């Protein structure tokens, strides 16, 4: 192995091998900006803040049985940052068309797996299209990395960061490597033993809790394996590989909070219920029978502490299967069912189980991962992400960020990705759909707003009716 190569983690390798022509494993984002941006300033921002993560200067070396990160000897920012312009009086439809096309196109594996397109001539301002391969990091981490490019004011002070010169690692003999691993393993074992003894001293029933946790993990693993396949609906079709992207006008976050508070639930409960209502309207518009047992969506669950800065990239998340009760048409009853489903998942170990499975798949043969991926992807109709964003408006290279959107890739046979992102007192909602699936993304965006309004009206009507019921 070349000294400039770093072994890829098993989990990152699992995401690398999920890449297919039908579902490129890219996290895609589009930011709309209120004014044009100086390319020189944008380049300087990327050099100082984005490229401080060495992973963005490294390409993937895949030998079949192993994968490595290797510094790209020909790295040039011009290979990754491109400037283009939309034609004529470009509107949202033109930008969505461009994002859809780029979201359907794989990255160049000869170079570091990311690209950005700065887009001029968009509604008097500009936009930035971002594509990063999932093997580099999970979506939650990458959203935080991208937000680190922004500032709270239009004119920040850009400090020059000295480029790090990496010294070549000292080559060790096979015996030295073996001894080094043995010492590491012994130190880890001793540390774990000390932690266990300390826990027993502080809490005598700790071994019983540990055994209970282990049995809970095993039970969740069995439940995941025995979960039935998704019902046959128009949302599950053979995929074409061509994507259609759309996003909605943002919701007012204060209205979402008021709705959740009136119902005695969380913002997440209200938004998942809104997604459920949007899918109900989709089935009704297509005169399609609604599945009696609901449908499931795969939701990434962060396993990285959110209160700590991102120092290293990589994938640190698991997936949970969330049942959306599309068969429950009453908004309030639907909310209660969503709330119950989420509370049950919060007590489970499903995220840790799926993370461990990805680690296991990344270490094994490709054919085993493919079969396991097909098995799991047949148990969800869509991928849904919900990421909390900044509370205040931000600026990129002096231009105000008016609307940020991100989509995580879909894997296996899943052809729909939905994303929710809070930003500056608003809630952004977007969707990407494989063109082989008979679902109009723009129509679903309209259903999303209709669904929230129906839930909000029902919640407020219920709250207003409470005093009358108490008086009676």
UniProtKB/TrEMBL annotation:
Tell me the domain of life. Bacteria
Q: Which SUPFAM superfamilies match?
A: CoA-dependent acyltransferases
Question: How is this protein named in the record?
Answer: diacylglycerol O-acyltransferase
Domain named O-acyltransferase WSD1 C-terminal: residues: 314-455
The Gene Ontology biological process terms listed for this entry are: glycerol metabolic process; triglyceride biosynthetic process
The UniProt keyword set, sorted, is: Acyltransferase, Glycerol metabolism, Lipid biosynthesis, Lipid metabolism, Transferase
Question: What's the top EC group for this one?
Answer: transferase
| A cellular-component GO term for this protein | plasma membrane
Which chemical reaction does it catalyze?
an acyl-CoA + a 1,2-diacyl-sn-glycerol = a triacyl-sn-glycerol + CoA
- Where the record annotates domain O-acyltransferase WSD1-like N-terminal, the positions are 8-270
Q: Which residues form the signal peptide?
A: none
GO molecular function terms listed in the Swiss-Prot or TrEMBL record: diacylglycerol O-acyltransferase activity
Family under the similarity heading: Belongs to the long-chain O-acyltransferase family.
